[in-house]
Design goal:
heterotrimer, A alpha/beta (592), B alpha/beta (374), C mainly alpha (288), A: 592 residues, alpha/beta, ABC transporter involved in vitamin B12 uptake, BtuC, six-stranded mixed sheet, four-stranded antiparallel sheet, 26 helices, elongated, B: 374 residues, Rossmann fold, four-stranded parallel sheet, 12 helices, 42% helix, 19% strand
């Protein structure tokens, strides 16, 4: 039996047990309220915990769901429960809009954008009297649920039953997404957005999907709160609920799925169960909150054993490099990368000045030049991180000029970064797995329900991640956190990740910088092996000794312009190159 | 989950308040009659309503309780103006504390939610202050409401405005709530195109300079304020003084109290209003209530305090008359059928449970004091 | 036409109110990179202290303001000690500070409601008003404007001309580098926090005669202050004041043609549009 069905069966069992055993409507109602707040926090946690975007206005979704379900059932007479389960639709639609804001705004700016969105909706709800009856609110009555009479439960018990089922489904669905390319894309956006783009992860789409899912869940939670409170008021869109959701998520622990759920429970149950000290209950709640923050970084969930489970790396088999590379590599000799008249200026300074060159399949081409020659700018132009002022970039005959980086990665051109770019809080293996995003497209439904096709593709992705780590000699460190690796290993990991994205041509920006001699030798060997296996590679590096030994051809930049191109021998003898490096004709110095 | 379902109610126990008075005979006492009280006790109005309720319970217990010496015990829960909290508190009263009689509340929104729960549980709900007409529109015969509705106020007050004040141009400043909106609609109906400005303000707004400037620009000679937050109407009155807006100032019935007059300071001078109760009413029960309240809280009770008092007082008297403290149906029937003596005079209930007493009492601010108009 | 001039005067004085709260919030964010949720309650405490010393102790209003400032400083010290300083070094420091200061804000509010009571109250500020033609501006509102501008100038001078200001700007740039060059970062943080709290508390004292003291006054003002801070550019002192005044003006102008609720909704929509076009605020620069 799969994990998913075990979870579902467990949830169903708990739901039945709870509905049969909890005979007090008060306790059942309170638990239901806790689950609603937990669900709200769970939704918020998708954006806050998984993707690392702080939101101050999640009540926008929460209240929208409540109003949508409430108004549809009171104004148009639809069945309330049916409408409640359609409430995620407007929530997700609003999430798409807010998600686009997330693509442009970061940090506190995104937080304020969500806050103002919620405030706008609250003001609309408070002032559009004809529709919402303003601050007075809409009185919504919900019909009995079908299983209420079936099992002879009370109203609160059957409501609790429904909520346990819904929360179980959400947990299972989110857990599945977390373990899919989409979920890993969210984490990559949180940890290193540029890296994610370079590996072919469409980060804008991932952000939009994230906020849409988060908003949909929050809207469902809002709709399901209505049977508890009977009256839908603009307060549901207010800062109070936004703060409750945000703080519950942080208090419970945003890093996991259970954390927000626990936080929601705490925010519902603590103030209510402290009613026996009515006068001081909010103050006591605040003290508990403060103690939790001071004493439990990571939230309540950190008290549970093994709450942070990294995906463990499997045991590694033998892997050969050729098996790593895609079968459809272009035939040796075809033009893989063609650059024509590329220009880019930053406020008058010509960083790239009419550069043209061609890289053919199977070649290992070096790009060198003194500091400030425009090598990295050139790479940024090729990989889509900067837009050229003029000129064209062709990958396998197709123009990729002006495309987003992830689209260029789709064309087969994948780059690495000068500074080791990895996701620091993930393990080495998880990093590699994240980088396999492009390897096999995962349809959303397949990932959500973990259909058989998803199993198969996930298996492929795991094999691929293993193989790439194996190729870089990182098997032994697979379960370590990437941030714990020595710098040299981090750079190797970055290359492993670039490989995992299945490039046809690999652009490496200073792969040897910061490596010691042993590591540099290992790197040179790997690059040589890759080229022999048929991969096309372009390298920027300062280690001229290594470049001369390794490269088939070298392109030399100086002040943004190409000053030489040819075999290592030819370039070494070029007086223009020598002048650029040393300001005088001293050819002997660069002899390897 | 670690919910401790605490059945023991540690709330406002009147025995403790009475102290030595009942001490020593506790062992032989019959079980107390417990009444649930919902109030946003952390707010000023909630506190006032709660204190009124406490005084009622104390007075009844001092008279020897009801139903053969049973004391009244109040179980008070905070509702914090939030439906979610109000429902939680009401559910706790109904299911945990097994209480079938609930009194109190200020907010109409919370009251609407509580009506639903009361109906589902067959309980009796005596709403004290909520003003919205829908509170008594559920058709459930065990819901009562003591405060007057805006429409009831208008019946008496419209005459004051049209006959005595006779404005030529009217401006209305109303909070954005049903109360405010209804007031605007009523005044428009009453004065037609004499209403030259009608502005709604948010209930969290704290600067009214724009509104008052607009009203000043409209040239109105009567300004009606319809907002229950005293810091808001106090502020509006002060701004009218600051900006030298020279018009008659009317605070719509049921919202002006001496705390509000204090907040507004001399800006409230000669503003007028009306209400269903003033502490100076001359009847024995009122004198006793005012004296007891002043003795306990060192303040003079007003409308909210009186309604809090009345909610408990009437429930206790009705239980006594119905001969039961366990059957909401019987108590409700008695409440509907009889006439009831309260500090504000004789109160009766219509078939929806709406209370009615005598005519509104006109009020005016003179020398910083809120007094009945001459 | 005179109504427009009156509204300009109103809008500026309202806007200075937003600015006074936003100023400290922005300062704290700029230097400590955290959001202080309890900042609104500090504002409220400033109003409460002014109320207590003027009405109960009979202290003249102008003398009450420095006392409110001292109370703000003490409160700031306490909040910093309890909910900010110990959490700053954590990996998720900013989220934890948000949560902790939120808890503190509940505590402060509950303490005030329980110990002092929930009743709103009037504070008599400076008497009198000046009239320019039909436009009336009370002396108290003028005073708010003047003190607000004085705070702005003093802060700017302090940031640009004093050693502390230099250290503060260094810490705002990089805590790590500041430590390396021997700046006592914790002390700079503490001072920043206290200065922000003093401004908020004095702001509470200044505005409570205008908007009346209420235990809720902090919660009401903080949302707008957040917006002002972000649009003005996080950490930008001038931005906070200019943006506060701008929003105040815009609000009062829109208030002439539509209801206040709609005006606020329009302003928020404008802000959202501004953010999407200029993702780092009006005055902010892209920085990481």
């Amino acid at each position: 039996m799969s994990r998913t069905s075990v979870w579902l069966a467990g949830g169903l069992l708990v739901a039945f047990l709870a509905a049969f055993l909890i005979d007090s409507p008060y306790v059942a109602g309170l638990l239901a309220y806790a689950l609603v707040l937990g669900m709200f926090a769970l939704g918020l946690g998708v954006t806050l915990g998984q993707m690392g975007y702080v939101t101050f206005g999640h009540a926008a979704f929460f209240g929208l769901g409540a109003y949508a379900a409430g108004l549809m059932s009171t104004k148009f007479g639809f069945n309330f429960w049916l409408m409640a389960f359609l409430a995620p639709l407007p929530g997700a639609a609003l999430g798409v809009l807010v998600g686009f804001a997330a693509a442009r705004l970061g940090g506190a700016y995104f937080a304020i954008a969500t806050l103002t969105t919620a405030e706008i909706l609250r003001l609309v709800a408070a002032n559009w009297i004809d529709l919402t009856r303003g601050p007075m609110g809409v009185l919504v009555t919900s019909p009995p649920l079908p299983w209420q009479t079936l099992f002879g439960w009370g109203q609160q018990q059957s409501y609790l039953f429904l909520l346990i089922i819904v929360v179980t489904l959400l947990l299972v669905g989110l857990r599945n997404l977390q373990r899919s390319p989409l979920g890993r894309a969210w984490v990559a956006v949180r940890e290193a957005p540029d890296l994610a783009e370079s590996l072919g992860i469409p980060t804008v789409r991932a952000r939009v999907a994230n906020v849409a899912i988060s908003g949909g869940i929050a809207a469902l939670a809002g709709a399901l709160l209505v049977p508890k409170i009977f009256v839908v008021t603009p307060d549901l869109l207010g800062v109070g609920y936004s703060a409750t959701g945000l703080l519950a998520t942080i208090m419970g622990g945003k890093a996991s799925l259970f954390g927000p759920l626990l936080g929601g429970f705490a925010f519902a149950v603590l103030p209510e169960s402290l009613r026996f000290v009515d006068a001081a209950r909010l103050a006591i709640f605040a003290v508990i909150l403060l103690l939790v923050v001071r004493l439990m970084p990571g939230g309540i969930v950190s008290l549970l054993p093994g709450f942070r489970r990294n995906t463990r790396a499997p045991t590694f088999g033998q892997h050969t490099l050729p098996a790593l590379l895609r079968p459809d590599l272009p035939a040796t000799g075809t033009d893989v990368l063609t650059v024509r008249g590329l220009r880019k200026a930053f406020s008058g300074l010509k960083a790239t000045d009419d550069v043209s060159f061609t890289v053919r399949a199977g070649e290992l081409v070096g790009l060198i030049g003194p500091n400030g020659a425009g090598k990295t700018t050139c790479f940024n132009l090729l990989s889509g991180f900067a837009k050229p002022d003029a000129g064209d970039v062709l990958c396998l005959g197709q123009s990729v000029n002006g495309l987003a980086p992830h689209r260029i990665a789709d064309h087969g051109m994948v780059r690495s970064f000068q500074q080791a770019a990895v996701c620091p809080t993930l393990t080495v293996y998880e990093n590699a797995l994240t980088a396999t995003h492009r390897a096999a497209r995962e349809p959303f439904l397949s990932a959500l329900l973990r259909l058989p096709g998803c199993w198969r593709r996930e298996h492929d992705r795991r094999l691929r991640a293993e193989a790439c780590l194996g190729a870089m000699g990182l098997q032994k460190r697979a379960d370590e956190l990437a941030s714990d690796l020595p710098y040299g290993d981090q750079k190797l990991l970055a290359i492993a990740m670039a490989l995992a994205a299945q490039p046809k041509i690999l652009l490496l920006d200073e792969p040897a910088a910061g490596l010691n001699q042993v590591e540099a030798a290992q790197l040179a060997k790997v690059l040589g092996d890759l080229r022999r296996a048929g991969l096309t590679i372009m390298v920027v590096d300062h280690n001229l000794k290594m470049m001369m030994a390794l490269c088939d051809r070298i392109v030399v930049l100086h002040h943004g312009a190409k000053i030489a191109e040819g075999t290592p021998e030819a370039v070494r003898g070029d007086t223009g190159v020598i002048q650029a490096y040393f300001g005088a004709a001293e050819p002997t110095v660069v002899t390897p | 989950m670690g919910i401790v379902a605490r059945r023991s109610v540690i709330a406002t126990t009147i025995a403790a308040l009475l102290g030595s008075f009942t001490f020593g005979v506790a062992a032989q006492q019959p079980p107390p009659v417990r009444i649930g009280v919902l109030m946003p006790v952390k707010s000023l109005v909630g506190k006032q309503g709660h204190q009124g309720a406490v005084v009622a319970a104390e007075m009844i217990n001092a008279d020897g309780g009801i139903l053969g010496g049973r004391r009244i015990e109040l179980v008070v829960y905070d509702t914090n103006f939030q439906p979610a909290e109000g429902v939680g508190a009401a559910q706790r009263l109904l299911n945990q504390d097994k209480i079938k009689f609930i009194a109190g509340e200020i907010s109409s929104t919370v009251a609407l939610a509580v009506v639903q729960l009361a109906q589902a549980n067959g309980a009796l709900f005596m709403a004290a202050v909520p003003k919205h007409p829908d509170v008594t529109a559920s058709g459930y015969d065990r819901v009562f409401r003591l405060n007057s509705t805006t429409a009831m106020d208008a019946r008496d007050f419209d005459i004051v405005l049209t006959e005595k004040i006779k404005p030529s141009k009217v401006a209305v400043l109303a909070e954005n709530s049903d109360f405010g909106r209804l007031t605007i609609a009523n005044l428009r109906k009453l004065f037609g195109n004499k209403v030259v400005a009608a502005e709604a303000y948010d209930m969290t707004q704290n600067d009214f300079s724009t509104l008052v400037t607009k009203v000043k620009g409209s040239g109105a000679d009567l300004v009606c304020i319809a907002g229950s937050n005293m810091e808001q109407y106090g502020n509006i009155l002060r701004l009218m003084q600051e900006l030298k807006l020279d018009a008659k100032r009317c605070v719509m019935p049921g919202i002006l109290n001496s705390e509000g007059v204090r907040v507004a300071g001399n800006a409230a001078e000669s503003a007028f209003s009306a209400d269903i109760y003033v502490p100076s009413l001359d009847n024995p029960l009122n004198k006793r209530f005012v004296a007891a309240y002043q003795a306990k809280y060192k303040e003079t009770p007003e409308k909210i305090e009186e309604l809090g008092f009345e909610s408990i007082w009437l429930l206790a008297k009705a239980m006594q008359k119905a001969g039961t403290a366990d059957d909401p149906a019987k108590v409700a029937k008695v409440l509907h059928e009889d006439k009831w003596e309260t500090p504000r005079g004789i109160v009766t209930f219509d078939k929806n449970g709406q209370a009615a007493s005598g005519a509104l009492i006109n009020l005016v601010v003179k020398d910083g004091k809120l007094i009945p108009a001459p | 036409m005179e109504i427009v001039f009156q509204q300009v005067a109103n809008g500026l004085s309202v806007g200075m109110g937003y600015a006074l709260v936003a100023l400290g919030l922005s300062l704290i964010f700029g230097v400590l990179h955290v959001i202080n949720f309890a900042h609104g309650e500090t504002f409220m405490i400033g109003g409460l202290v002014t109320l207590i010393v003027t009405s109960l102790l009979g202290v003249p209003y102008l003398l009450a303001l420095p006392i409110a400032g001292i109370a703000g400083a003490i409160l700031g010290l306490g909040i910093n000690r309890l909910a900010v300083q110990p959490l700053l070094q954590r990996r998720d420091g900013s989220a934890d500070v948000l949560l902790a200061t939120f808890a503190v804000s509940i505590l402060i509010h509950q303490a005030v409601v329980v110990l002092w009571g929930p009743a709103p109250a009037r504070i008599d500020g400076l008497p009198g008003a000046i009239e320019i033609g039909p436009v009336v501006l009370t002396n108290q509102r003028l005073f708010v404007l003047a003190i607000g501008l004085a705070f702005l100038l003093a802060l700017e001078w302090c940031l640009k001309r004093t050693r502390f200001g230099t250290e503060l700007r260094a810490v705002a740039q990089s805590q790590f580098a500041s430590r390396v060059v021997g700046i006592e970062v914790d002390r700079v943080n503490l001072r920043t926090f206290v200065i922000a709290a003093v401004i908020a508390a004095v702001g509470g004292g200044l505005l409570s005669p205008v908007i009346l003291y209420s235990s809720l006054m902090g919660q009401v003002v903080i949302i707008k202050a957040f917006v002002v801070v972000v649009i003005g550019g996080m950490g930008s002192i001038v931005g906070a004041v200019v943006c506060g005044l701008l929003i105040g003006l815009l609000e009062s102008m829109l208030g002439l043609v539509t209801s206040e609720g709609t005006a606020t909704a329009v302003i928020y929509s404008l802000l959202l549009a501004v953010l999407l076009v200029r993702p780092y605020g009006l005055a902010g620069k892209k920085a990481r």
